[in-house]
């Protein structure tokens, strides 16, 4: 019987590494949010920081081989990690850099919200080592912000951007959502235009997704959530592509747009099969192995369960879920994730990593041909990539190319 222990097996040290730190605390829970969050006053800043640093120490050895890995990114997500005391964030950054012998420049991101940042608070984050801020803007209409449970106003957005710039941070990501209840295409175009005028380096533009266990999920099942129809949502997606490309943003992933040289390093690790260590409540990790397989595992979702387990097990909480991914699983995932990007799938690199060309399988080659005929996929001798229309059907293409589905 195979041992179910994500610490076993020889690490594939050729892959770069990212560290993800989950901070679950928020001041309020948005009705669409399905992430692991906790509303608590006061926030246990020091207790949570101690658990995170202990976990980094306990599990860093799992992500080291004969040499130190190439640590490229530290990402603080949530929740609202901008609410965490800067000294706690700085302590986690220092621990990760020390444990992984990081000497080169890293992308270090903290998520936060308008209305929750000041010039002083962002300056403290900058002093702690943060060099990238991700702002959850979502919309530029107060009635839409209220409809999705956001606690900031439109007026707070420009103030937050000013605070980030005044603190000396020159890498700003802004999140926008479309397909919101009551949102029109004109609303969406206005949000895009105003955001472009604020000059962020990166924009994430994504559609509202309704999750079952959320208040919006309950409203949807009851027929009480009036959202734009699929054709309108598709028009909003196309509008984002049109407006942002005209403003010199590169549409480099389905939901991601960047100025030249400002692609998100951390997310790119996910899309290209990099290794990542996730610490904190609910955080997920991927540990690729030299034999072509790998481990995926995640921490307990509930805050108290995570803290108790981390304390009882000396910083090594009992994972809530562990999966040993086969070489075929990871090859499927590599194709799916690669097709999310404008670069697509490099056929030579894919064969080098997974042992064969992605279209070596006759059933996948046949499925790919049908996707080409539908206008969704481009197949060249060196690369597979989605067309502009194919981005709208990315999940459909991936499901057709997924072997064993």
Entry keywords:
globular, three-stranded antiparallel sheet, Arc Repressor Mutant, subunit A, nine-stranded mixed sheet, TIM Barrel, 38% helix, 14 helices, alpha/beta
Topology overview:
Blueprint: E1 17-23, H1 45-59, E2 71-78, H2 86-99, E3 107-112, H3 119-128, E4 132-138, H4 142-147, H5 154-166, E5 172-178, H6 185-197, E6 202-207, H7 215-221, H8 230-246, E7 250-253, E8 256-258, H9 265-271, E9 275-279, E10 284-288, E11 294-298, H10 303-312, E12 321-325, H11 327-339, E13 345-346, H12 347-354, H13 362-373, E14 377-379, E15 383-386, H14 394-401
Parallel strand pairs: 1-2, 1-9, 2-3, 3-4, 4-5, 5-6
Antiparallel strand pairs: 6-8, 7-8, 10-11, 11-12, 13-15, 14-15
Helix pairs in contact: 1-2, 2-3, 3-5, 6-8, 11-14
Description:
This protein is α/β, with parallel strands linked by helices and 405 residues long. It has helices at residues 45-59, 86-99, 119-128, 142-147, 154-166, 185-197, 215-221, 230-246, 265-271, 303-312, 327-339, 347-354, 362-373, 394-401; strands at 17-23, 71-78, 107-112, 132-138, 172-178, 202-207, 250-253, 256-258, 275-279, 284-288, 294-298, 321-325, 345-346, 377-379, 383-386. It has 2 domains: 17-269, Alpha-Beta Barrel (TIM Barrel); 345-405, Arc Repressor Mutant, subunit A (Orthogonal Bundle), CATH 1.10.10.920. The protein has 14 helices and 15 strands. The strands form 3 sheets. A 9-stranded mixed β-sheet has the order 7-8-6-5-4-3-2-1-9, with helices on both faces. A 3-stranded antiparallel β-sheet has the order 10-11-12. The protein has a 3-stranded antiparallel β-sheet with strand order 13-15-14. Strand 1 (17-23), helix 1 (45-59) and strand 2 (71-78) form a beta-alpha-beta unit. Helix 2 runs parallel beside helix 3 (119-128). The mean pLDDT is 95.
